[in-house]
């Protein structure tokens, strides 16, 4: 039995999923994780390294790795790729100027072999801000349609401020991972 | 989501139930983040000693690799164990990252990154490569830090959606720029490519973006979300916000009120002082933004480029005698264009 199938078997028993949250600094990753977990979001500092949150979601245990997006620490992202079941790419939909950066970093990430099997959820965050781009516009800018056909992906508009869209996004992610890991063999 | 067998109504009901569950959870949330234990410095030092013990033992493990290099199976196991130890160390940092002073978090991350590198190097030198392979794949290490050539980065902006109508000021030189936002709901506000301008924004916005300012003075009412400043030089900013990120700034002064720690990256010669803005009705705006109380965070700057416990040379506290006094926008005359 290969290492991978052993890991899968262990995971299946524990119904555990490893989720990696990345995206540019200021996109709202930490706010989203705390909001989903029902925690206070009124004082959040830019993330210096990373935080891990274990959240029970339906019958699954999600280990969510929230990694800081400041330029200096983006080079550490690769330390968290291993065994990632779900990748959440968070976009600040109101930060039009840095969408270029955003696309560049996402493209780089998707080249990563260790992430090739991960389901990809793109959260077009900050939809509550007047002037924010819609998920459709974000999809166009990031050229998501051109993505590798084997990739499972979904884009969802959301606001960590109001909570809107977060459940929809995570529902898709969890179901997609579950259908790959737990139900299929 | 499309392949679910349940009917749309069931799904709707389920969604509704989940939403209620979340609202329920949110309503029970604690009023604030759990307080740090009183003995936070004590827990820091106990963390640091555990960290350094684990680090030493990993370094020993790494050093032992050479002596078992002849036994391929054992070596592989050894590398797996070492990799596990590094993961454990990483978990330790993650669990403590809320409590630790920021430079400790940064140095810990750097240490872990270095250990991973050493392990990677050892693995690639001690475990012999296959004689040949059909695919000429780059090694993992290379691909991880691989950057495409410069010309690929500059993707054309052809179908780039831009919002012409988004509020803000751009491409101005030597002007006095005034915006009164009172009463209107404003989302993001952007200042870009300003030279020798004075900017006065009265009222509250959700997000403020600042890009490429030179020799400017910027006075802005409370920002309920975050401020992002990139490439400012020779400028003065008076800002209140929940979060402030400053990238690539030079010789600039920041008068801030912030709920979390301001951060700087790739900056130097930046100085900090407390917020000093007034205009009619600012108290109400500050209250509305949850920024009525001084947090003292204006002085708790984190420099992402600085990995040591001693004060970063890139920023400092603005000496009292060099600070501008209170700036009262209600009293400033509009004709006064001198900068
Ligand atoms: N209006 C609005 N503001 C948001 C939303 N989500 C996050 N923010 C604000 O955006 C700022 C950045 O949020 P964070 O959660 O710290 O962002 P991050 O992605 O974790 O940033 P790093 O840790 O630096 O990588 C904060 O001031 C949040 O209050 C949203 O949906 N709407
Ligand atoms: Mg964060």
From TrEMBL, chain A:
Keywords: GTP-binding, Lipoprotein, Magnesium, Metal-binding, Myristate, Nucleotide-binding
NCBIfam families named among the record's database cross-references: small_GTP
Binding site for Mg(2+): 30, 47
Designated name of the protein: ADP-ribosylation factor-like protein 2
Lineage: Eukaryota, Viridiplantae, Streptophyta, Embryophyta, Tracheophyta
One GO molecular-function entry: GTP binding
SMART domains attached to this UniProt entry: ARF (SM00177), RAB (SM00175), SAR (SM00178)
SUPFAM superfamilies per UniProt: P-loop containing nucleoside triphosphate hydrolases
Organism the protein comes from: Flemingia macrophylla
UniProt-listed InterPro entries: Arl2, ARL2/3, P-loop_NTPase, Small_GTP-bd, Small_GTPase_ARF/SAR
Assigned protein family: Belongs to the small GTPase superfamily. Arf family.
Superkingdom of the organism of origin: Eukaryota
Matching PROSITE patterns: ARF
Statement: the UniProt record of this protein carries the keyword Magnesium: yes
Chain positions recorded as GTP binding sites: 23-30, 69, 125-128
Pfam families named among the record's database cross-references: Arf
Transmembrane spans: none
UniProtKB/TrEMBL annotation, chain B:
Residues of the C-CAP/cofactor C-like domain: 149-306
Subcellular location: Cytoplasm
Keyword Acetylation recorded: yes
Keyword entries, A-Z: Acetylation, Chaperone, Cytoplasm
Region (Disordered): 1-46, 135-164
Keyword Metal-binding tagged: no
Pfam families reported in the protein's UniProt record: TBCC (PF07986), TBCC_N (PF16752)
GO cellular component assignments: cytoplasm
SMART domains attached to this UniProt entry: CARP
Self-association state and partner proteins as the record states: Supercomplex made of cofactors A to E. Cofactors A and D function by capturing and stabilizing tubulin in a quasi-native conformation. Cofactor E binds to the cofactor D-tubulin complex; interaction with cofactor C then causes the release of tubulin polypeptides that are committed to the native state.
PANTHER family (alphabetical): TUBULIN FOLDING COFACTOR C, TUBULIN-SPECIFIC CHAPERONE C
Record-stated family: Belongs to the TBCC family.
Entry protein name: C-CAP/cofactor C-like domain-containing protein
Originating organism: Flemingia macrophylla
Organism taxonomic ancestry: Eukaryota, Viridiplantae, Streptophyta, Embryophyta, Tracheophyta
């Amino acid at each position: 039995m290969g290492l991978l199938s052993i890991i899968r078997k262990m995971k299946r028993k524990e119904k555990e999923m490893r989720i990696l949250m990345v995206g540019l600094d200021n996109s709202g990753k930490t706010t989203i994780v705390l909001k989903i977990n029902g925690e206070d979001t009124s004082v959040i500092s830019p993330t210096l390294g990373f935080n891990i949150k274990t959240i029970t979601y339906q019958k699954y245990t999600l280990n969510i790795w929230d990694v800081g997006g400041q330029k200096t620490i983006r080079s550490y992202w690769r330390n968290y790729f291993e065994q990632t079941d779900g990748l959440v790419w968070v976009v600040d939909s109101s930060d039009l100027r840095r969408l270029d950066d955003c696309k560049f970093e996402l493209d780089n990430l998707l080249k990563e072999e260790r992430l090739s099997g991960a389901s990809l959820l793109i959260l077009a965050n900050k939809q509550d801000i007047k002037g924010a781009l819609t998920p459709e516009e974000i999809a166009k800018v990031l050229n998501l349609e051109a993505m590798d056909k084997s990739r499972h992906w979904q884009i969802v508009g959301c606001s960590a401020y109001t909570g809107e869209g977060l459940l929809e996004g995570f529902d898709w992610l969890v179901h997609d991972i579950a259908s790959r890991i737990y139900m299929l063999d | 989501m499309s392949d679910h067998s349940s009917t749309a109504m069931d799904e709707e009901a389920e969604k509704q139930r989940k939403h209620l569950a979340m609202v329920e959870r949110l309503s029970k949330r604690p009023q604030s983040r759990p307080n740090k234990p009183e003995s936070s410095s004590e827990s820091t030092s106990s963390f640091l000693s555990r960290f350094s013990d684990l680090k030493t033992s990993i370094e020993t493990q790494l050093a032992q690799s050479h002596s078992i290099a002849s036994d391929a199976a054992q070596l592989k196991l050894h590398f797996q164990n070492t990799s596990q130890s590094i993961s454990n160390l990483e978990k330790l940092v993650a669990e403590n990252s809320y409590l630790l002073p920021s430079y400790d978090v940064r140095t810990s991350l750097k240490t872990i990154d270095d250990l991973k590198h050493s392990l990677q190097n050892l693995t690639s030198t001690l475990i012999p490569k296959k004689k040949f392979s059909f695919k000429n794949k780059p090694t993992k290490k290379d691909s991880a830090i691989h950057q495409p050539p410069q010309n690929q980065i500059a993707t054309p902006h052809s179908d780039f959606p831009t919002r012409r109508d988004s509020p803000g000021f751009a491409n101005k030189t030597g002007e006095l720029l005034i915006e009164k936002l009172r009463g209107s709901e404003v989302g993001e506000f952007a200042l870009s490519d300003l030279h020798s301008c004075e900017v006065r924004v009265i009222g509250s916005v959700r997000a403020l973006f600042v890009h490429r300012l030179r020799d400017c003075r910027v006075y802005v009412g409370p920002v309920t979300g975050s401020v992002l400043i990139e490439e400012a030089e020779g400028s003065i900013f008076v800002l209140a916000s929940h979060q402030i990120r400053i990238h690539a700034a030079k010789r600039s002064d920041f008068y801030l009120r912030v709920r979390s720690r301001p951060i700087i990256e790739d900056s130097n010669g930046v100085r900090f002082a407390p917020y000093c803005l007034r205009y009619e009705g600012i108290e109400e705006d500050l209250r509305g933004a949850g920024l009525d109380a001084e947090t003292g965070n204006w002085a708790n700057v984190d420099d992402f480029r600085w990995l040591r416990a001693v004060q970063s040379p890139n920023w400092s506290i603005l000496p009292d005698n060099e600070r501008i006094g209170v700036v009262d926008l209600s009293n400033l005359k509009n004709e006064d264009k001198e900068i």
